[in-house]
Write a structure and sequence with these properties.
The chain is α+β, with helices and mostly antiparallel strands. About 30% of the residues lie in helices and about 20% in strands. The protein has eleven helices and 13 strands. The longest helix is centred in the N-terminal third of the chain and has 17 residues, at about 1-20. It is elongated and about 75 Å long.
Length: about 400
């Protein structure tokens, strides 16, 4: 009886996997396109505009690679004025984290800096008041605001004791006055929250940097200023992030980091004029890049992370993006040994795009579900695609 029960369970699980593709093709709000050996073998509602959610990050990643190359490193400039203020000019580096500031502190000390009047920040590379479509006012990390100068993805990692005592949850990140003020009202436990407001980002950066400099023995006055680096100053140190674009994109895709995606998206709007970067400029420049790269006209990209429900791609367009991403497949998150793909999730939206390995070959696919569905359906479809067997029997379009 036990063996019979085990065989029955195994059979049911096998049927569940085998039924994943027919199940998704039966959904009115789903699209699926698969190409094998240069031929489209599944094309279900392939040209229907859909909400891509975070699979849009593949577009942002491709545009960034095309613009800067995988060896690109973001830079941040450090200057000292005649009054002894340390000015920091941000360029939009999406990966300035506490450990990176430790490298900055060592470099500044090596240049003989021992006494500073205070920290001044220049975040003018981004225009003020940047609005990211789809970003809500929650304190969740995925809703962190963008900023030309930011530390730790504009998020805080805090612990609150039962007695209300607040501490940093990261040994590498000191607790600062702003972090302490933002912790008010948090329940006991561990919390990862965002700064909420774009204009708090430079202040928090300055507080963390000042605290680290003091720990390293540098005297730093208590003041903080925001503005533009005074004209004529030469940098005492130009910091190139230790992570190149390859590392940044890998982390962005693995953790679906919206902050990284939209920091890059904003910089894609740079036209070389030196004007502050805006989301409108970024949308226009990315649209021009997409039109020139893929020849599309019927699409919509509101921002670079997939937060906006106004974004629109078809599954066929998503497949084209995946195919263009083939040289960078190793940057995609792995699910076992046979799936390399990016998820996309919003309420009522479940997407998956990337590659499955079939009989030794990597096969590109794009799946978009814009209706409530089982949380694991997209993964079951991908696993189904990775199985040996003929896929063309699923073809539901004359274009296959």
């Amino acid at each position: 009886l036990l063996m019979f029960a085990l065989l029955t369970v195994a059979g049911n699980l096998s049927a569940r996997v085998e039924n994943a593709i027919p199940g998704v093709l039966a959904l009115p709000g789903a699209s699926l396109v698969v190409e094998e050996r240069g031929r489209v073998v599944i094309a279900h509602q392939a040209d229907r505009p859909m909400v891509p959610a975070s699979t849009l990050k593949l577009v942002t990643a491709l545009a960034a690679i095309d613009r800067w190359g995988l060896d690109h490193r973001s830079t941040t400039g450090f200057y000292i004025d005649d009054d002894g203020w340390l000015w920091v000019r941000g360029s939009g580096d999406p990966f300035l984290v506490s450990e990176e500031l430790d490298v900055v502190v060592v470099a500044l000390r090596a240049r003989g800096i021992e006494d500073l009047a205070g920290i001044a920040t220049d975040a003018s590379r981004f225009a003020p008041g940047v609005e990211v479509a789809g970003r809500s006012a929650s304190d969740n990390p995925y809703d962190a605001p963008v900023s030309a100068l930011a530390v730790n993805f504009n998020t805080l990692n805090l612990t609150v004791s039962a007695g209300g005592q607040v501490a940093s949850a990261e040994s590498q990140t000191p607790l600062t006055p702003l972090a302490l003020s933002l912790s008010k009202g948090l329940a006991p436990g561990r919390h990862r929250i965002n700064l909420g407001q774009e204009d708090l980002a430079p202040r928090y950066f300055a507080e963390v940097l000042a605290a680290k400099l003091r720990l390293a023995g540098v005297a730093v006055g208590g003041g903080w200023r925001a503005g533009r680096v005074p004209a004529g100053l030469e940098p005492v140190y130009l910091h190139a992030n230790r992570r190149d674009l390859r590392d940044v994109l890998s982390a962005m895709l693995e953790y679906s980091n919206n902050f990284i995606a939209n920091q890059l998206f904003m910089q894609l709007g740079d036209d070389g004029s030196g004007a502050p970067l805006t989301m409108a400029h970024a949308r226009q420049r990315v649209r021009e890049w997409v039109e020139g790269t893929f020849g599309w006209t019927d699409f919509r990209i509101d921002e670079g992370a997939g937060l906006s429900r106004g974004n629109r791609l078809s599954a066929r367009q998503l497949l084209a993006v995946v195919k263009a991403f083939a040289p960078y497949r190793d940057l995609l998150p792995a699910e076992g040994s046979d799936i390399r793909a990016k998820t996309g999730t919003l309420r009522g939206v479940s997407c998956y795009a990337g590659f499955v390995r079939r009989d030794g070959d990597w096969v590109p696919f794009g799946l978009m579900i814009n209706q409530p569905a089982s949380w694991d359906l997209r993964l079951r479809v991908a696993r189904d695609l990775a199985r040996s067997g003929d896929l063309e029997g699923y073809c539901s379009s004359a274009s296959c």
